[in-house]
Amino acid sequence: MFSIGLAFIFIAGISFLGFAINALFDKIKITSVLPLMIIGLLMGPVFNLVNVGSSSIITELNPYITAIAIAFILFEIGMNMRIKTLSKVILASTQFILLTQIIIGAAVGLFVYYIMGWSWPVALIFSFAISGPSSITAPTLAKNMKAPENLRTFIVYEGVFSDILQLVVPLVLISIYVIPNA
């Protein structure tokens, strides 16, 4: 079991690192994800400073930290999005997202089924789970683009909405696969 104090220190340390690296990212224009990944690799598997085994604090806290991080990211996206601009691009963006999700999901599903030999249900679940951009990377990309606000909003909305589809479609497919008579 872990102590609450240690958990808060860990979360505060990671948050501080994230803010510091994000400030560095704004200065030198490199992605803030890469330095955090390198620090994680160095602290975990390389130097074994942090236990990353199945009984570690990291493993126990991972679902909570992930949920908090995604909540903050989506909150920031919502704070920075303009309703007027979103209303201009929402129809075209939704159509684009649905079309690309179907095409990419079908293409990857066919590849995984025929080339890798997976079953149809598993191939489709996998393909639709990875069929779009991430709501984590899209805002960073859009923020640093020198493009019209409509295009930036389009990209951010695409990242967020495709995440929803990447969760819902595989869950529906899993439900159909697990409960075939439902």
TrEMBL record:
GO cellular component: plasma membrane
Residue spans crossing the bilayer: 6-25, 32-50, 56-75, 96-116, 122-142, 154-179
Membrane-related topology note: Multi-pass membrane protein
Cation/H+ exchanger transmembrane domain sequence ranges: 20-177
InterPro entries: Cation/H_exchanger_TM (IPR006153), Na+/solute_symporter_sf (IPR038770)
Organism phylogeny: unclassified sequences, metagenomes, ecological metagenomes
GO BP field: proton transmembrane transport
Designated name of the protein: Sodium/hydrogen exchanger family protein
Keywords on record: Antiport, Cell membrane, Ion transport, Membrane, Transmembrane, Transmembrane helix, Transport
MF (Gene Ontology): antiporter activity
Subcellular location: Cell membrane
